[in-house]
Amino acid sequence: MRHIISVITPLDRPEQPARGFDEAHARFDALLRQDPPAVDPRSRSWLASPGYRTERVVVFLHGLTNSPRQFRSLGERFAAKGYTVLVPRLPYHGYLDRMTTDLAQLRAYELVDATAQAIDIAAGLADHVTVSGISLGGVLAIWAAQYRSVAVAAPIAPALGLPLLPLWATRPAFAAVSRLPNWFMWWDPRRKDRLPGPDYAYPRFPTHALAETQCLGADLFDAAKRRPPRAATVWMITNASDLAVNNSAIRSLVDHWRTAGANAVYTYEFPRKLKLFHDIVDPLQPGARPDVVYPILEDLIAEWKQPSRSS
Length: 311
Prior knowledge:
alpha/beta, 7-stranded mixed β-sheet, Rossmann fold
């Protein structure tokens, strides 16, 4: 049976913000109850809250095949600054069985729904909502920037296109991938299931899930041509040495937003000399540099300013 890419028309979702702190916590508890037995208890959605409504909350969105634990270390730093921190588990992620085939079921509309749900919960936890995420989570942070009036959206290395694939070819290429039988690709074909790094991340990804996420990114790129983001402030964060995403396409999306009338869209790029891996957030990744990366992300996301530290 042929797989067809999910069509999101429109990309927007009706806003259903929690009406207060207690309702937000009740919704979060309900979210946890929806976890299937296959989920690793250590990789469930997590919430750091002081027990009362705060001024600011940050929603962190993890990457494809990772889990909420990707943002545990960085999230705890934000909690120490007085933020409430919410990190939702994206569908089919965080399973005990890292070789699960369930991720092949992932659809773009489920990712949008999960992001909208997290932002609605966050609205009851604090006065100002910030949304950030890396890779796939960065694409979802772009969705938040485009469609929700959050205080800050800070996509990190969003998985928008591929480095050697022109952006115009992304949609037809991945539409073709979706029509082929799904197959699983190793992140590292040499080491396969012995992939170094966090033991909660899947060592392989399904081609159909990748197609869904890439086509979602292409849809958001087109949306940026039509209207500016609703977010009050956007920080687009990239990595000059990133070999996993199309930085040129990311810059073009920013240009489209500015052309559409956005006047609070800013950029920061980690310099090539740092030789950073695509996943600059998870401290368990080989070559991770949280000592360099985290203070800069805090300046951008928490302080809403250009980093004062030299990189």
